[in-house]
Amino acid sequence: MSIDSFEPTFGILVYIAAVYVATGVVKGVLGIGLPLISIPLLASTVGPITAMALLAVPTIVINLWQTVQSGYMIGALKRFRVAYPLSIAGVLVGVSFLTRLDGRALFVLVGVVVILIAVMQLLPFNLTIPQRWERWATPLVGAASGLIGGVSNFLGPFMAMYLVGLRVTSDQFVGAIALFYLIAAIPFYGGLAATGHFGWAELAGSTVAAVLIWLGVLVGQQLRARASAELFRRLVLVVLIVIGVNMIRKGLM
Fold first, then answer.
1. Phi, psi torsion values for 124, nearest 5 degrees
2. Dihedrals φ, ψ of 82, to 5°?
3. Local confidence pLDDT in tens for the 253 residues of the chain
4. Residue 118: half-sphere exposure toward Cβ, Cα within 13 Å
5. How many CB atoms lie within 10 A of CB 235?
6. pTM of the model
7. CB distance 145 to 87 below 8 Å
8. Do 213 and 23 touch, CB atoms closer than 8 A?
9. DSSP 151-166
10. Taking a C-beta distance cutoff of 8 angstroms, is the pair 142, 83 a contact?
11. Element (H or E) spanning 25, and its range?
């Protein structure tokens, strides 16, 4: 499904706008990635691939800003230089499969990935990766992250777990993961454009989505000091598991 063939009612447009604002609120409070929230909520309305395409502008703009702000761009490029080109290759392979999957299979795939990511974030994660393993682990993680991201648009969870395991500092984490998102997003959306799933209509919709998400982020930042972030995080993840199960149900019907 593309925006050109999508004929929404006023109620559906309000729902889509509300999803993007809510996505921004969650991002502002918890910092959870944009695809994890918006894609499962919009997949049944605009289709999974269009839901992914509409995140192009927010993904690139936010991660470019975070990369520059972190001050770790050069350091990340040097330390993880092997991971980035392999992630690009993985994304290109993955997105070629994504655009050939039928709608039901795509619903099941996205639902499974959403559930796995949510469950992993609910469970305690205490893995420590020795730096001496980086020589072989970094290229493996880069390629695997790209491949998984290419077929689902969830570009960062695998790389994020790897960085946590390396015990990098918070600034290093933000800089490295934002740069990874940025580098992986370009071939992903390029692949969607090459297969006719990302055009001017999607670009315009993605620009509007970026504005709505940013408004939500501003609200979320205000709520962060007032709400229990841990309780909010757990509620969001439980809701995502329910949504993921529903997506799998729809795909199997």
1. -65, 140
2. -75, -30
3. 555 445 567 888 899 999 999 988 887 777 666 888 888 888 888 888 899 999 999 989 988 887 887 788 888 889 999 999 999 999 999 999 888 888 788 888 888 888 888 888 787 766 788 888 988 999 999 999 999 889 888 887 788 888 888 888 877 887 888 889 889 999 999 999 998 989 998 999 999 999 999 999 888 878 767 767 677 777 777 877 888 887 788 778 7
4. 23
5. 11
6. 0.82
7. yes
8. yes
9. HHS--SHHHHHHHHHT
10. yes
11. helix 10-30
Contact between residue 167 and residue 128 where contact means Cβ atoms under 8 Å apart? yes
> Can you give the length of the chain in residues?
253
3-state secondary structure of 6: coil
Residue 132 CA to its chain's centroid (Å): 29
Largest CA distance in the chain: 56
Identity of the residue numbered 121: Q
Instruction: Identify residue 225 by its one-letter amino acid code.
Output: A
The letter for the amino acid at 229 is A
Q: How far apart are CA 154 and CA 137, in angstroms?
A: 20
Contacts of 235 (CB under 8 A, 6+ apart): none
Three-class HEC string of 69-138: HHCCHHHHHHHCCCHHHHHHHHHHHHHHHHCCCCHHHHHHHHHHHHHHHHHHHHCCCCCCCCHHHHHHHH
164, burial (CB in 10 Å: exposed 0-12, middle 13-18, buried 19+): middle
